[in-house]
Design goal:
Elements: H1 5-16, E1 29-34, E2 39-43, H2 56-66, E3 72-78, H3 89-99, E4 105-109, E5 115-120, H4 121-124
Parallel strand pairs: 3-4
Antiparallel strand pairs: 1-2, 1-3, 4-5
Bound molecules: tetrahydrodeoxyuridine.
Residues 21, 24, 26, 28, 44, 46, 53, 55-57, 77, 85, 87-88, 91 line the site of tetrahydrodeoxyuridine.
Length: 142
Amino acid sequence: MTVELNELIKAAMDARGKAYARYSNHPVGAAILADDGNIYAGCNVENAAYPLGFCAEANAIGNMVMGQGKAIRHIVIAGPGEHLCTPCGGCRQQIREFAGKAGAPVTIVDRTGAVLFETTSADLLPHSFGPENLSSEGKDHE
Ligand code: THU
């Protein structure tokens, strides 16, 4: 079964609905289509100790790792408004780990699920650092 973009968008919006964003009031959802054909979603989870909050993308990646997924084929991020909710710098690095140097499509949708922006993880993080930059062993991950 081919996962359609609208399925991924719906998963990201559903995840956003579960966000724990009581401090920023900025709920975000992310949905990954992984190499195993499954969708893994996540929402942001904030904390009273503000810097300890987790982004939606990071939690979606955690769910992918806990499932059968080993690589990101596509990621959709659903922001809460009409503005672009592009992944933060830290999330770009986390996505890069599982999308590889060549990258994967990144689609940003707004509150209603309308596509605002389509790019790739490689374009969001040029000249990136990854496993293969650590040692020859890292080549296994590429
Ligand atoms: N946030 C995400 O979860 N993903 C993004 O792409 C951007 C920002 C979260 C972090 C924080 O909980 C809230 O949005 C406001 O920054």
